[in-house]
Amino acid sequence: MKGNTVRELAAKGVDRLRRAGVESPRLDAELLLAKVLDKDRHFLHVNPDYCPDVGVEAEYYALLNRRAAGEPLQYLTGIQEFMGLVFTVNPSVLIPRSDTETLVEEVLDRLKGYRGMGVSETPETPGSGMDGDRVLGLDLGTGSGAIAVSLACYFAGLYVKAVDISPEALRVAQKNAVRHGVADRIDFLRGDLFSPFEGTGQKFDLIVSNPPYISGKEMRELQREVLHEPQSALYGGSDGLCFYKKIVAGAPEFLKRGGLLAVEIGYDQAAAVIDLLNQTGVFKYTEVVKDLAGRCRVVLAAAHN
Ligand code: GLN
Q1: Distance 213 CA to ligand 1 centre (A)
Q2: Quick one: average pLDDT of 137-157?
Q3: What Å distances lie between residue 116 and 198, 249, 259, 302, CA to CA?
Q4: 127 backbone dihedrals φ, ψ, rounded to 5°
């Protein structure tokens, strides 16, 4: 008996996922089919009459069932694109979001105009913290490494210390650094925020973070896909601000004078995070940047400690 063609399999998958209420049934079905075939989506369109063997078909149906039950597509395909780069992901890391590209792009803009972080109008010591064109960055809660790796890929002078509390996440991040050829410029360290550097006197030109920032109330309203992501990468305490409090409190000790702190925030957290920064008396310059959807997404602050 002849098996199903790629065209038939795609149609069945679309139908299965649509009935399960998946938002983008065609895209997801095609990506899962391409995954089991070990091809890209383009192959499906060029070879609609190709008949995969039954083992491949069974594997496809198994993935469709998992997707229909709410597992995120990216945990099934094992990848997510971010900043034009393909990242390995698994359920031990948050799936990189396009929102976070706003953070990376803002930081890159400043690094590229880097002279004393390029954020203060007249840095008191221009180029302070500079060591040639070397910039030392710290990524807190690196997860898949999406931020650290893409920054390192697009800014050759950047050296990053990337911290995460989860050893499983660090393994994924390390893989991504190798995949993109920047492993020699990123050190991955297990720890809780600044803990690996406490008492070392180490200071950074840049501290970047996309910390967990979902509040208790929002945690109860998450999309079913998001429930598969690590709670430790999402939950920011009852008010969602727990990690900003710790990061803002610790940053002055670990930032060089004129250094930049850049954090992703939830759309309604800008005022609260700016308040935290102002309370320190150390961050004289703050800025809120909106994402492509027009929501407040990034807070930048320059240290004048
Ligand atoms: N942006 C993510 C979401 O809305 C949350 C990421 C985070 O907590 N840092 O699901």
Answers
A1: 6
A2: 97
A3: 24, 22, 7, 10
A4: 75, 10
- Whether the pLDDT of residue 57 is over 90: the answer is yes
How far apart, in whole angstroms, are the C-alpha atoms of residue 147 and residue 151?
6
- The pLDDT of residue 198 is 97
User: Residue 1: what pLDDT?
Assistant: 59
**Looking at ligand 1, which residue's alpha carbon is closest to its atom 1?**
97
- The pTM assigned to this predicted structure is 0.92
Is it the case that residue 127 has pLDDT exceeding 50? no
* Domain residue spans of the chain: 6-69, 92-303
Which CATH architecture describes the domain 92-303?
3-Layer(aba) Sandwich (3.40)
Binding site membership of 33 for ligand 1 (Cβ less than 6 Å): no
The CA distances from residue 175 to 18, 139, 193, 301, in Å, are 34, 16, 21, 31
What is the position in ligand 1's atom list of the atom closest to the CA of 229?
10
CA of residue 215 to ligand 1 center, whole Å: 10
Does the beta carbon of 214 sit less than 6 angstroms from any atom of ligand 1? yes
Tens digit of pLDDT for each residue in 221-232? 999 999 999 999
Between CA 152 and CA 202 the distance in angstroms is 20
Question: For position 304, what pLDDT does the model report?
Answer: 83
Owner of token pair 């369109």:
45
- Kindly tell me the burial class for residue 39, based on how many C-beta atoms sit within 10 Å of its own C-beta (0-12, 13-18, 19 or more): middle
